[in-house]
Amino acid sequence: MTEISNGTETSHGTGTPGVLAGASAILFDLDGVLTPTAVVHERAWQELFDGFLQSVPDAPGYRESDYFDHIDGKPRFDGVRDFLASRNIVLPEGPADDDPANDTVHGLGNRKNKVFNDIVAAGGVTPYEGSVRFIEAALGRGLKLAVVSSSRNAVPVLKAAGLSDYFPVVVDGVVAVSEGLPGKPSPATYEYAAQLLGLPSEACIVVEDAVSGVQAGSAGSFHSVIGVDRGAGRKTLLDAGATIVVGDLAELL
Predict the structure, then answer these.
(1) Are residues 136 and 231 in the same domain?
(2) 102 conformational bin, left if phi > 0, alpha if psi -120 to 50, beta if neither
(3) What is the pLDDT of residues 61-72, one digit of tens each?
(4) How many CB atoms lie within 10 A of CB 208?
(5) Which one of 26, 31, 92, 206 has the fewest beta carbons within 10 angstroms of its own beta carbon?
């Protein structure tokens, strides 16, 4: 077992109490931390860009690493922009509600959202068992909980996964836009969630699987940042600022 003590990773076998010592709340990313929808996002992005790049014959094809290098954890339209920039492709922005059929930044982003929602609707969402156990352990210690996600689909995904009742505060892509908050790797959305919980950032633990999300937690004055390695790589998450990295939150129980 692992324990967080003064910002360092140590091994003491103390389980959840050691990890949560001194914290009053936990701020969870959603996709890849609580639900395996990160896999659905990866599939939706690949379908989007596999189709789009067919019209750009000189551009390198979409690779699995592109998701982690340019897209993971970012607001959707930022992911589109950064991927296009990696291929030296420039498209008009288009209006925010642009038709998904249009080859604009917002059109592509909305097309990806449609693909994602179609996949979720067809298969449902099952949360990670270890994450649910960790949530229940945190609640048992009286900690407050919130979800902080770049996705604009966080609320329906939480509902589909049966997790809505755990989280009275959800700061997602919709809230970020309405409040004018910059997306991850800025710590602003996490700081706003702490504010909604009525707590200082220093009392809140950030839990993230994406490099940009770990960077967001590291950039703020949070209690600690727990990285969950669902593919980004343990060293990569530690280098991004994670206090500790686990393969599944059940390892902390």
Answers:
(1) yes
(2) beta
(3) 999 899 989 998
(4) 30
(5) 92
Return the CATH number at 139: 3.40.50.1000
Is residue 29 among the annotated active site residues? yes
Structural domain that includes position 22: 3-36+126-252
Q: In whole angstroms, give the CA distance from residue 241 to residue 210.
A: 11
User: pTM for this structure?
Assistant: 0.74
Q: Which of 31, 66, 72, 78 is catalytic?
A: 31
Summary mean pLDDT of the chain: 90
Is 31 catalytic? The answer is: yes
Residues 111 and 150 in one domain: no
Q: What is the pLDDT of residues 95-114, one digit of tens each?
A: 999 999 999 999 999 999 99
Selecting among 29, 66, 72, 172, the annotated active-site residue is 29
Q: Residue 115 pLDDT > 60, yes or no?
A: yes
